[in-house]
Design goal:
Number of domains: 2
Shape: elongated
Strand order of the largest sheet: 1-2-3-7-6
Protein name: Interleukin-27 subunit beta
Largest sheet: 5 strands, antiparallel
CATH topology of the largest domain: Immunoglobulin-like
GO cellular component, one term: membrane
CATH class of the largest domain: Mainly Beta
Number of strands: 16
CATH architecture of the largest domain: Sandwich
Structural class: mainly beta
Order of helices and strands: EEEEEEEEEHEEEEEEE
Keywords: Glycoprotein, Repeat, Signal
Distance between the termini: 55 Å
Family: Belongs to the type I cytokine receptor family. Type 3 subfamily.
Radius of gyration: 22 Å
Domain Fibronectin type-III: 117-216
Length: 218
């Protein structure tokens, strides 16, 4: 979604949230030109609940979060949001001359949750055709017993100059044996994580691990 005011265009993207009582980063706005400020109101579909208003903060150009010196990233932190609750996000951009434009979007935490990628991916040969792939859950997913994860495995290889890939899963455990692979062929393995019931989005893929199966028995 986007908010446009004169020569100012603000692109708004919902970001990853962390379930539980932790703060939730929900907004990323990229400003390109002009003098303006952003107001964010969050309306909650609960009776007797006051409107929550939060002020966006600039991330200064040149920081790790800014892609170029001509851009500034904005973010808002909305603490203590609840599960199973409808929220309406009202983003208003106001120029120095007083012109304004607003954009509304609705969300529930369950619909936008996105875990971080799994970590510590390990690939071990079992014999000349089988591999064991193991990994650890993302350390930022602190409520694993309340909100378990499921996983997918992506492995790729080159065949006559063409990249081929297979996506397997979902798996509920953190290790999988892969069978029928080709000895001597290099493979690239990655794992992603998703909330067990399929709520929200799958994580980004983990860092790739490259392994070649030995041609001789171990």
């Amino acid at each position: 979604m986007a908010v446009t005011v004169g020569s100012v265009c603000v692109a708004v993207t919902l970001l990853m949230c962390v379930l539980g009582g932790q703060a939730v980063d929900l907004l990323r706005a990229k400003a390109t030109s002009g003098s303006f400020y952003i107001c964010v109101n969050v309306f909650v579909s609960e009776r007797n609940r006051p409107t929550v208003t939060t002020q966006c903060q600039f991330i200064q150009p040149g920081s790790a979060a800014s892609s170029s010196s001509s851009e500034q990233l904005l973010h808002c932190t909305l603490p203590n949001l609840k599960l199973l609750t409808d929220y309406i996000l009202n983003v208003t951009a106001v120029t120095a001359s007083g012109e304004s434009s607003s954009d509304l979007s609705s969300f529930m935490l369950e619909d936008i949750v996105k875990p971080d990628p799994p970590v510590d991916v390990r690939v071990s040969p079992l014999n000349i055709r089988n591999l064991l792939v193991e990994w650890s859950p993302p350390p930022t997913w602190t409520n694993l017993y309340i909100f378990p994860l499921k996983y997918q495995i992506l492995y790729q290889w080159e065949s006559r100059g063409t990249t081929r890939s297979i996506n397997l899963g979902p798996f509920e455990n953190t290790k999988v044996e892969l069978k029928g692979l080709t000895p001597g062929r290099p493979y690239l393995f990655q794992v992603c994580a998703m909330e067990l019931l399929g709520l929200g989005k799958c994580s980004d893929w983990s860092l790739p691990v490259k392994v070649t199966i030995p041609r001789v028995k171990l």
